[in-house]
Every structure is written in C-alpha cells, then in structure tokens.
Amino acid sequence: GENVEQHPSTLSVQEGDSAVIKCTYSDSASNYFPWYKQELGKGPQLIIDIRSNVGEKKDQRIAVTLNKTAKHFSLHITETQPEDSAVYFCAGQGAQKLVFGQGTRLTINP
Amino acid sequence: EAQVTQNPRYLITVTGKKLTVTCSQNMNHEYMSWYRQDPGLGLRQIYYSMNVEVTDKGDVPEGYKVSRKEKRNFPLILESPSPNQTSLYFCASRTGMVAEAFFGQGTRLTVV
Asked: At residue B32, what are phi and psi to the nearest 5 degrees?
C-alpha cells in the first residue's frame, strides 16, 4: 500500500522568507496529492492539491510541485506571515485510502 | 453550513469502559473515515466507509469498531478502551477518493 514520508518535522523561518516542505510516496499508482493545514485546536483543512497529470500548481503565496518520476512532491510558501504558523500534512491517495505524512510544524518568527 | 460534527470534544474515561464517539456530516458525502493523530506519527487511518453498510479497516483498526447505518453518521466505538488508545481522533468525509476531505474538530480522548 501507499506510504508517505514527510520532512522536516519542524521548520522555523523568518517572517517574509520562504518555507519548503517535502514529501515522498511509494505507490506509483497514486494520482492525487493534497496538502492540509492544521491550526491549534482545529481539524486539518485543505489548502492546495495536485493531480498526477500536473507538474505544478499555484494559489497566491502557496505552490505545490510534483515529480512523478522521483515520486516526490513539495509545498512552497512564499512571503511567509505569522498566520502561516501551523502544522502541515501532505497526503497521497492510494488504492482506497488517503495516506498522510507525519506532519511539519511550521513556525514563523517575527 | 457544511460541516462534520464530532462529539464529545473531550473525554476522560477508565480502562475497559465502553465508549462511542459520534460523527455526523451534512454534505451527503459517500466516503467517511476515522483517523487518530499522535505526535510524530501524523494522521493514521483507523476505519473507512465508502457507503452505507460498507466499511473497511484502515492502518490501525485494532481495538476499534465502526458502523455506517445511515449516510450521514459514522460512529467510532471502543468496546474496551486501553491507555494506548489515548489520542486525538478525527472524523472526515469526502465525496469521492479524489476529493477534498472535510474534517471534524477532533475528539481528545484520555484513557486512564
């Protein structure tokens, strides 16, 4: 089945700098890769997703890239702001299940 | 408002005392899942359901049961809770496999 590895587990950046979180997946048949943001005391919420027929997708300050050959995908946040501080999860859609990475705690320092 | 509602939000119980965490969604979604979140382990799927009366094991099903008698409800049952089931639990629903998952607010369970 699908296995998703996520790095780093914690990331601290200065406000205004960029943040990059990376994930690898094992199942070459996986075709859907969402990213979720979890704020303190809340459930995860989708922030961006990408399907396997696309190499890159952008939404304002957030972008996701997908390398199917290498089986990895990354989240890029530019011009980080204090409200970007949260836990971020990547995920890969396997045969029946959505499998999540271990999570990255992102801290934006003022 | 479209939402997934879990109850209770917080629960402290003793070993062996049966409990149920309820989950309800108002979006007419086919798929529903239960996850547990533990530090360093991310979100691990416990059980999922693709439709009414169709359920299957996720990655960590031991010690849990579920049922899907109605489309909107997907309760999680712990017949005999143990301390290693102390965790943060999330219910989620979505329209299909390649679709956004909507999560509930979470249930923090402590088993002493």
From this structure: -140, 150
d(C-alpha B10, C-alpha B7), whole Å: 8
pLDDT tens, position by position, A35-54: 999 999 999 999 999 998 88
Chain B residues whose CB is inside 8 A of the A42 CB are 105-106
pLDDT band at B94 (very low <50, low <70, confident <90, very high): very high
* Cα(B25)–Cα(B52) distance, integer angstroms: 13
Contacts of B43 in chain A (CB under 8 A): 44, 89, 100, 103
Q: Verify cis geometry, omega within 30 degrees of 0, for the bond prior to A8.
A: yes
Distance of CA A30 to the CA centre of its chain: 15
Tell me if A93 sits within 8 A of A33, measured CB to CB.
yes
Of B100, B8, B38, B77, the closest CA to residue A87 belongs to B38
- pLDDT mean over B58-79: 97
Report chain B residues touching chain A, CB-CB < 8 A: 4, 33, 35, 40-45, 48, 50, 56, 58-59, 90, 92, 97-98, 100-101, 103-106
Cα dihedral value B98, B26, B105, B90, nearest 10: -50
Name the residue type at position A52: S
